[in-house]
Amino acid sequence: MAAPYVLHMLTPLKHVSPFDVNMAADAGMGPLFPYTGVTPEEVPGITQDAMFSRDPANAVRTGLFIGGRDAVVALDMMEAARKAMFPPFTISVMVDPSGAFTTAGAMVAVVERALRRSRPDGIKGVNVQVFGATGVVGGIAGVIAALAGARVTLVSHRGLSGVEPKAAEFRRRFGVELHCADAPDDAAKEALLADAEVVFGCGRAGLQILSARNLAAAGRLMAAADINAVPPPGIEGVGAKDDGAPLPGGRGVGVGALAIGAVKFRVQHALLMRLAVAEKAEYLDFRHAYDAARRIAG
């Protein structure tokens, strides 16, 4: 009989995400063990306890899932885990804080699918503005879009201090150039949107960050995507089920939260299944989520 797949689920938060637990169970993993309030400094010890307690032949049947709400902290925890390992005791690690890596990968991939209907290069060379960029999904969506060749601006509504340190850290880690802007009011949003070709709405649930009037200022708009499924929409005029539907203003198409979520769900399942059937240790982050999302979105 094959050894069970043991997944250790780590988070710096008070609770492990029930969403992630259910996804792991549906991928055939189990038993599942939560570890809460975990700091990066504690990760090496947890990792080595997990890897040394199994026969090396079953190392590949052991994994760490790292959650939380901060992309940089989650990636630091992943790196701490990797540094704690050595053959033949190497186990897999997947990072997806607040589901942000799989959501961001799905968001960019679904927008690219919509753009390729009229633009073969997809998002490459496009001016992308990320509203709600202070959050974990917005920041990583910006990184993914930049790595795909877009010109990306991270937009804050409460000062550049909310996005400039993040942009500098992502530049250091991933070599991407992310511009930053502050748009605290309608006038600032509309001045900024004049150059936007793609808009990502990554604000918190139930908060409208762009009105129809704001969006009307985007004279070059090709697509607007919104991850908010809770009314009101984060971007007015983008329906939750929209998947490349024409926007009400007659310019560009909309991509809604449910269209993104349908791909995100399949991406997270695919990555967890990749761990479950792997023959060697896997280390999965937002780049793998984006690659999977592109295959799934088609």
Automatic annotation (TrEMBL):
InterPro entries recorded: Aminoacid_DH-like_N_sf, Methyl-teptahyd_DH_N, Methyl-teptahyd_DH_N_sf, NAD(P)-bd_dom_sf
Record's signal peptide: none
Pfam families (alphabetical): Mpt_N
GO molecular function (one): oxidoreductase activity
Keywords assigned: Oxidoreductase
Domain Methylene-tetrahydromethanopterin dehydrogenase N-terminal, residue spans: 18-98
The protein's name in its UniProt record: Methylenetetrahydromethanopterin dehydrogenase
Organism: Roseomonas genomospecies 6
